Amino acid sequence: MTDQSSPDERDARAYTRRQAREAWLVRRRRKIMDEIERNRRGEYTVPTWVLAALLVAIIAAWAALIIWS
Fold first, then answer.
1. Average pLDDT rounded to a whole number, residues 1-6
2. Could you tell me which residues come within 8 angstroms of residue 25 by beta carbon, excluding any fewer than 6 positions away?
3. Model-level pTM greater than 0.70?
4. Which of 23, 52, 60, 61 is 20 to 30 A from 4 via CA?
């Protein structure tokens, strides 16, 4: 008997490159559509990198104000 939980080696190569790319595009579109729906519902969050960049800009401006005033 074969174990059904382990993936069959043939399944890993079941898709052609074109089919794999189409599947990737479908997943990407779905992810983008889900994000747009969340944003429309008001569940938008600011990315961490934006917050970090804003903090660095504020600290740099504060330091520049102290140094050059």
1. 53
2. none
3. no
4. 23
